[in-house]
Structure formats: C-alpha cells, structure tokens
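Table S4 entry, 3-deoxy-D-manno-octulosonic acid kinase.
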Amino acid sequence: MTAFHTHTLAPGHFLLSCDGHGEARWFDPSWRQQHAVQQGEALGRGNSQILRIGDTTVVLRHYLRGGIIARLNRDKYLWQGLKDTRPYRELTLLLKLRDMGLSVPNPVAGRVLRRGFWYTADIMTEYIADSLTLDQWLMSRQISMDLWQRIGATIATFHRAGLDHVDLNIRNILIDSHKQVYLIDFDRCQLRDPDSHWQHGNLERLSRSLYKLGHYTPWQWQQLMHGYRQPASLHRT
C-alpha cells in the first residue's frame, strides 16, 4: 500500500500528505483566498468546498459532528493519538481501497490541529471531474435501468471487498460523465469480514435516503438490487 507522509509543522499541528501532494498552506484560509479558486460546494454533511489549486482540483472537507452532539460540540474530537484521528484513519482506508482497485477518489492530504485534549481536522481528496451525486442525477435527469444496476454492482464490489460504508446514502454515490460509479466520504468506515448483517444495514440506509428525499420507487430499487445480486463475473464497475 502506498503510504502517506506525516509532517509535524508545529506543536499539535500535523500535515498528512499522500503521493507527494498536499501542502500545509492549502489548508490556510488566507492563502486559499489569494491563490485558490473555489469552484463550488460538495453536497453532504459539513462544509465541503471544491477548489482549484494550480493544476489540481480537490474537495476540502472539514470534519463536523452529526446528530444531537453537534449542538454542543460542532467539530472537536477527543485526542487519542495521531493514528486515531479522523483524517489519518480515512486516508489510510482510502489508500487501501484504491490499491484494491475500487472506485474511490484519490486521497490528497489531511490536517490535524490539536489543542489540549481535543483536535479539529480537515481532509482533501481529488475531485472527480464531470461528476454528480446520485441525488443530483435524480433531480436533473432520468437514470436508466442499466445505470441503476451498475450502482448496485458497484456497492456489491465494495461489500465483497469488506468495506462497511456506515453512511451510504445518495449523496455519497458519485456518477461521472462516462457513467462510472464511485463511493465517497469514508469517515468512520472500515474494512471487515463480509457479513450479510452489516451489508444489509448499508443497503437499508441507502434505501431510507432515497425514500426520505422523495426519490424512492420500487422499480428503481429492484434494478439496483438486481445489479447488486449479479455474480461477480458479470459486474461492470
């Protein structure tokens, strides 16, 4: 597995750089205001920005808490060592998934700022050009039977590899202009032994997100599950 490099920039200030990409200044709002071009915002929880920095386009995401706890603690996490921080774990997982040949964005860099018992963090991944979330596709165009099946087949490929995506929803599935399907946002996700229990939980979460945002129809779900259940040799991802 390709490793990333850890740089201590100052006491409690860490940069995690993948494949020689990512610089500390990329995380500095003042520097970005002068040297980066914001090209949009990515959907999903938190503040995710699409930025053009030189020849590289990245998605910058600040780690934010969800649920009830976010009302009291928006973005601070308990410090238990650098290897237990959110970006360290997510970048490590992304590198493993990429090396397995799965459709994920390339990891770029992460930043951790420790203050006493707590830390805040950010992550950068490579922007997938000409892509839309499944949510955006559903709002702007028809999705063919073949594409629904391809989405299901992609999820099955990740599941066979042991990826438990704990936040699988229509905003964490990307489709590019060539109808290549990707999964994104692997915070708190993990590789584990394939098991129908957690796999079913992932699918249930996706089904709820389709229903919640008014995009669920039995036919669509049947096509997705048809692709999901196809033998591995027939999956096209």
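The chain has two domains: 4-126, 131-234.
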